Amino acid sequence: MTRPAPHVPSAAPAPAPASVQLMDQLAQAAASYYRNFAAVAAGRGLTLMQGKMLSLLRQPMPMRTLADLLACDASNVTGIVDRLEARELVRREADPADRRVKLVLLTESGQRTVEEIRAELMSELSGLETLDEADRHALRRLLGQIFPAEHARPPR
Amino acid sequence: MTRPAPHVPSAAPAPAPASVQLMDQLAQAAASYYRNFAAVAAGRGLTLMQGKMLSLLRQPMPMRTLADLLACDASNVTGIVDRLEARELVRREADPADRRVKLVLLTESGQRTVEEIRAELMSELSGLETLDEADRHALRRLLGQIFPAEHARPPR
DNA sequence: TATTGTTATACTCTATAACTATA
DNA sequence: TATAGTTATAGAGTATAACAATA
To answer: Do B22 and A118 make contact, defined as CB atoms within 8 angstroms?
Structure first.
C-alpha cells in the first residue's frame, strides 16, 4: 500500500530559511521601534497616530499629503488634526495657491513637543549611538535595499 | 545693543545629526514593513492586529502572553481572539496545568493562513532575497544591537 | 492576596459613502 | 469632471475599572 506522504511542513514555494529568519527579526525590530515610539508619545498623552502626524510635519502640509504619508483614508485625517488642533499642537491654514487645500502646520508648542519626542526616542534607542561610522553606512545601505524609498505622489 | 540670538534650531542635548538621520530611516523602514504587512493581511480580510496575533501563534499561548507580545492590555485580547475564533482561525483550549489560563492555538485553517501571509510578505520584501550571506549577517548584528531582544516575562 | 480572563465603558482609529467647494 | 476636505456611520483597537474563578 502507498505510504502516507511524509510530513512536508508547508505548501508555497518555500523561501530560503535564512530569509524567513531575517524577516522575523525585521518584524521584531519594527515592533520594537513602534513600542518605543508609542510609549514616548503616550508619555505626552498622544496616540501613535497623533505622534506620527506631528513627526511628519517638518513643514506645512496639505491634509491629503498627510493621508498618503500615514497610509490611511483622507477622512481620518480630519479627526486626527481636529484633536491635535484642540490641544493647540497644530493649526490649519488656507493654501493661497489652491483654495480647496488646507495646510497643516505645527504651532510653537507642537514644535517643542516634536523635539522632545525625538530626543526621548533617541535616548530609548541608545543602541543607535553605539554604532561607528562603518556600521551606520552599512545599515543605511541595507535598509535602503530592503525598503526602497516610496515616492510621494507628484505635487500636481 | 545685544543682537538677537542666532537662530539655533533646538533645545535638548542635540544628538549627533548622523543618528537623527539614521533614526528617520529606521522610522521609514518600520512604517514600510507594517504597510506591507497590513496590506497582505487586508487581502485576507484581516486587520493588522489580527494578522500579528496569528503570526505569533507558532505554538499555543495563554491570552496573557499574547497581551504581552502585542503590547496591549489583556482586555483587548478577548475581543481580538473572539473575532478570530468566529472565523475559525484560532481556538481556545483549557490549560490543564492552571485552570485560570486559556490557551489560544491556530486551527488548520489558521495555520494555512499564516503560511500564506508569510509567503506573500516575503515576496513583497523582495529586497531581502537580494542580500548575500555577509549582508544578512551584518543586518542581523546591527538590528540586534539597536533592538536588543526583550525577554518575555518568566513563565512562572 | 495575586493572577487570568471577562465585561462594560468611553475614546480613538479605520474605511466607505455621500456631500461642498473649489479646480 | 476631478480633487480636497468634511460629515455620518459602523466596526475594530485601546486603556481603565470592576468582576468571577482560580492559584
So the answer is: no
Residue whose grid cell is 499564516: B114
Q: Please name which of B23, B106, B15, B143 lies closest in space to residue A23, comparing C-alpha atoms.
A: B143
**Whole-model pTM?**
0.89
Q: Where are the domains positioned within chain A?
A: 29-124
Q: Does residue A102 sit in helix, strand or coil?
A: strand
User: What is the SS3 assignment for A134?
Assistant: helix
pLDDT in tens, B5-26: 333 334 445 556 778 899 999 9
Is the Cβ–Cβ distance between B104 and B61 less than 8 Å? yes
Nearest chain B Cα distance for residue A128, angstroms: 6
Class of domain B29-124: mainly alpha
Q: CB atoms < 10 A from the CB of B21, how many?
A: 12
How far does B49 lie from chain A, in Å, by closest CA? 12
